[in-house]
Design brief:
Elements lengths: L1 H26 L2 H21 L4 H13 L4 H26 L3 H5 L1 H25 L4 H10 L6 H11 L5 H33 L17 E4 L3 H12 L4 E5 L2 H9 L4 E3 L5 H6 L7 E4 L4 H14 L4 E6 L2 H10 L3 E4 L2 H14 L4 H21 L7 H24 L11
Helix pairs in contact: 1-2, 1-3, 2-3, 6-7, 6-9, 7-9, 8-9, 13-14, 15-16, 16-17
């Protein structure tokens, strides 16, 4: 009887339910689609209940069948608003079903049983991870992330109690053990991340690379996205450069793609000397971290004053600090690309292409002028805010004037 009900549910889900969902989806009405999905779940739950099984088991099987259909992603989007609410109700029910008084009456047996559960399931998960060719660290993280008892245990214990298969007091103890294991899991994951992983996976620091060729005219400090783009253009133009990066994994990655980079800390004087800073002509500062970037800029300006310092700034504050040091050329990493996007947006909205270009160029020049003017006041938030307000008013007036100026076509063309 039980097997027949499960078979009917599985076969009906694979053939009848999918066909039904296709018909409902063809209507294009999201509410009807959601209602049909809930009808499938309720029908499966009632079918399992009618043969003496748990309604939760029926709902679970319905969810598995729906997850295997082509409508999985649409269903996920439809139930997303209910997910948080239902999850909260589930944990409220878990908390209410746990008999905390047992922990006070016999704490040691409860804690020991919880420990045995965590150790047993964690060991099995670690073994499975290793059998699946996971690395030691990945398998350990896998074991520490999922050692708790499953949520379905509450359904099974309640059902077993209802059918007289499990005494009520024993079910209460098991429910409390599973609850305690759920509480302990995030703590175990934190312990693994903060203490075990650094301690077990520690390795001697990798020595900095020996720089083979220190006669390149250009040094690039920081070989991430920004530095790599700069280096690619220099390479195709035949300009030699020495690239430095303090991230060993990043250096290994770019080397696999044929780039020449060295692992090292550009804020160290001995490394810059080994990289040929005394003989180079240009120093491109493309380091992502603001404080490290400032330290490198100060060192280069102090010890290698002959180098022309071209720097990338992450934001206006970073730009101001680099301007304090006296870089020769400064570029804000997203500013120019943002201007291109704004210009194209204006053009797509129907603005004259020439006026869109003029507006973007006016904005660029005004912003660079404002950046230089704010250099003297960026340490004072009050003065900086006042300067920004004034700059917005000036820019609005400039753009209003540009918009009122007619566009003159080139000679031989038409305006």
């Amino acid at each position: 009887r039980f097997l027949s009900a499960v078979a009917v549910l599985i076969l009906g889900g694979r053939y009848l339910v999918r066909h039904l969902l296709r018909l409902v989806a063809a209507t294009g009405i999201q509410e009807v689609f959601t209602a049909a999905s809930l009808l499938v779940v309720l029908g499966s739950a009632l079918l399992m209940h009618s043969v003496g099984l748990s309604m939760a088991l029926g709902a679970f099987l319905a969810g598995v069948l729906l997850a295997e259909s082509e409508f999985r992603h649409e269903l996920e989007a439809n139930i997303q608003p209910f997910k948080g609410l239902l999850l909260g109700l589930f944990f409220i029910a878990v908390g209410m079903s746990a008999n905390i008084g047992l922990l006070g009456d016999s704490p040691m047996p409860m804690l020991l049983a919880t420990l045995i559960l965590l150790l047993t399931k964690g060991s099995i998960l670690y073994l499975i991870g290793r059998l699946q060719k996971m690395g030691t660290r990945a398998a350990r993280c896998f074991a520490f992330s999922l050692p708790q008892g499953g949520e379905f245990a509450f359904v099974l214990f309640t059902a077993a109690t209802g059918y007289g298969l499990l005494p009520r007091n024993r079910a209460d103890e098991l429910i409390l053990v599973v609850t305690l294991s759920m509480i302990a899991t995030p703590i175990l994951a934190m312990i693994n991340d903060r203490w075990l992983t650094p301690w077990l996976d520690r390795s001697p620091p990798r020595p900095f690379d020996n720089i083979e060729d220190s006669h390149a005219p250009v040094i690039i400090a920081g070989f991430g996205r920004f530095g790599q783009a700069t280096g690619r253009l220099l390479r195709v133009r035949g300009v030699a450069f020495t690239a430095l990066d303090s991230d060993a994994a990043q250096v290994d990655l770019v080397r696999r793609f044929g780039n020449r980079a060295y692992y090292g800390d550009a804020s160290r004087l001995d490394l810059l000397e080994a990289a040929g800073a005394a003989r180079a002509r240009i120093f491109v500062l493309a380091i992502d971290d603001v404080e490290t970037s400032i330290r490198v800029a100060e060192l280069v300006r102090k010890r290698f004053s002959h180098l022309r310092l071209i720097a990338r700034a992450r934001n206006r504050y970073h730009a101001h600090r680099l301007m304090d040091i006296g870089v020769d050329y400064l570029v804000r990493e997203v500013f120019l690309s943002a201007m291109d996007v704004a210009r194209e947006t204006l053009a797509q909205l129907g603005a004259d292409p020439e006026q869109a270009r003029n507006a973007a160029e006016t904005f660029r020049k005004h912003d660079e002028h404002t950046l230089a003017r704010q250099q003297a006041v960026y340490h004072s938030e009050e003065q900086l805010v006042e300067s920004a307000r004034q700059a917005v008013q000036e820019l609005e007036q400039l753009l209003r004037t540009d918009a009122e100026t007619p566009v003159v076509a080139p000679t031989g063309g038409r305006s």
